[in-house]
Amino acid sequence: QVQLVESGGGLVQAGDSLRLSCAASGRTFSPYAMGWSRQAPGKQRELVTEITSGGGTTYANSVKGRFTISRDNAKNTVYLQMNSLKPEDTAVYYCAARNYGDNEFTYWGQGTQVTVSS
Fold first, then answer.
1. Which residues pair with 52 in a beta bridge?
2. C-alpha dist (Å) from residue 96 to 13, 21, 52
3. Phi, psi (deg, nearest 5) at residue 33
4. For the chain, which has fewer Cβ within 10 Å, the N-terminal or C-terminal residue?
5. 17: which DSSP letter?
6. Separation CA 27–CA 1 (nearest Å)
7. What is the pLDDT of residues 77-100, one digit of tens each?
8. pLDDT of 15-52, one tens digit each?
């Protein structure tokens, strides 16, 4: 059984930083790509960033230059460093993963709340 467990969310002020972590577990689980999506109240879930096992990254335009994703393949863990946070970054952040050949994320964490006050 595959599990993705996030940690690191919280309440911060605009301009602050937060670091999210997500550990993937499962006896033979070695995802090709891991990443983060977020969903703000009343909005659709959106892709924030993704990193492949080879280190290739993708970022939403709204977070480029402020967020950095990194990955420890040996630990099946992905990190999201969020700097210069804005109130519009407020959302539930979901860790996600997909196997090679999958076009979309197929594994999801339970989500962690990030709230940025102005």
1. 33
2. 26, 11, 12
3. -135, 145
4. N
5. -
6. 7
7. 999 999 999 999 999 999 999 999
8. 999 999 999 988 777 888 999 999 999 999 999 999 99
